[in-house]
Q: What sequence folds into this?
């Protein structure tokens, strides 16, 4: 049996080239539906001075839906009631998640725990105990199912509730030694993937995964991390989202502690116990009210832009990322008109979006 036409159209738009979460939301808000957005993309890209990327076909999406169902997983769209409310608050929230397991965990207060893959034995033991202690208070623990601290955090919270966000498809086991653990979490806990089934995790996928981990949680705890590690990327995402950033201090003689000590110097909360963590996240502990569908869609009044407005906005953009608000201020144009031109440029392949609502020439 075929999937509903709206679901197919939404997945086609999500899986098409050059369509990220922000672009998806703006297209649906402007054109009213995913199908109407798909129909409009060729003209938008032409106005942006390029060609559209490859659009996903209905057959490709139907095949994906069949595989997700076969795997015992399901889709959570951003406007579904079960979609995590904290994650829905961020601009770059995935339009759809593929999940397997107990989605009731998404309604609990949630803490992210991340850290070094080559973590010390003492740090792994500490992470397991901290996750266990937090879990016993009804807090769900989210992490990325990597070696080291992530694995220890999942193990500590396995009996009380853990959420694993993976970088590849929901049927891909990475690292391989965590296959049994991933299968168990997908049954008793909750397994989340942004990528479709069959997608092997690549380096570019891990920062995407990290933003989901930070977005799901009221706060992120970092336990051992090198100064330029993925764990610090997750912590910085959390700070950007207005969430609590916490770190476990370590010896200055251990390189694995340098990232945590650096975070504390920059203002992260020093924590040592579950009570410290709960005190730090208390202002967000119950989570936010669910954003309205209108807010999620980033809806604005439709606006058009003429050639002179397009030239003015293009002249302001360079290879250096700049906030969209700054483009609005310097151009003196309505925000909706600026957003439309940026959308055209992005679909034409001339614009790249960066963290913090910044854009630059691609």
A:
């Amino acid at each position: 049996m075929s999937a509903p036409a709206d679901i197919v159209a939404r997945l086609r738009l999500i899986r098409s080239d050059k369509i990220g979460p922000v672009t998806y939301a703006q297209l649906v808000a402007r054109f009213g539906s995913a199908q109407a957005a798909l129909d409009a993309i060729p003209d938008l890209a032409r106005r942006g001075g390029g060609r559209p990327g490859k659009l996903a076909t209905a057959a490709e999406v139907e095949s994906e839906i069949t595989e997700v169902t076969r795997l015992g997983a399901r889709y959570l769209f951003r406007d579904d009631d079960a979609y995590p409310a904290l994650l829905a608050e961020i601009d770059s929230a995935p339009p759809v998640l593929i999940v397997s397991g107990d989605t009731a965990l998404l309604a609990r207060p949630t803490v992210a725990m991340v850290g070094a893959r080559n973590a010390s034995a003492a740090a792994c033991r500490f992470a397991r105990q901290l996750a266990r202690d937090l879990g016993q208070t009804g807090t769900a623990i989210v992490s990325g199912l990597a070696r080291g601290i992530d694995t220890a955090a999942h193990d500590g919270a396995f009996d009380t509730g853990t959420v694993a966000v993976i970088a590849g498809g929901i049927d891909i086991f990475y690292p391989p030694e965590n296959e049994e653990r991933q299968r168990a979490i997908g049954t008793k806990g909750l397994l989340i993937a942004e990528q479709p089934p069959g997608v092997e995790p690549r380096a570019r996928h891990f920062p995407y995964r990290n933003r989901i981990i930070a977005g799901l949680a009221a706060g992120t705890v970092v336990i051992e991390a090198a100064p330029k590690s993925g764990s610090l990327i997750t912590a910085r995402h959390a700070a950007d989202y207005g969430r609590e950033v916490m770190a476990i201090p370590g010896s200055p003689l251990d390189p694995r502690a340098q990232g945590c000590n650096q975070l504390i110097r920059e203002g992260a909360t020093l924590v040592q116990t579950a009570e410290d963590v709960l005190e730090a996240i208390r202002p967000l502990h119950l989570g936010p009210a669910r954003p309205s569908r209108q807010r999620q869609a980033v809806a604005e009044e439709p606006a058009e832009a003429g050639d002179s407005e397009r030239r003015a906005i293009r002249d302001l953009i360079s290879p250096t990322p700049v906030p969209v608000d700054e483009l609005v201020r310097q151009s003196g144009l309505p925000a909706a008109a600026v957003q439309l031109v940026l959308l055209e440029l992005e679909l034409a392949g001339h614009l790249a979006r960066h963290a913090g609502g910044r854009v630059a020439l691609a």
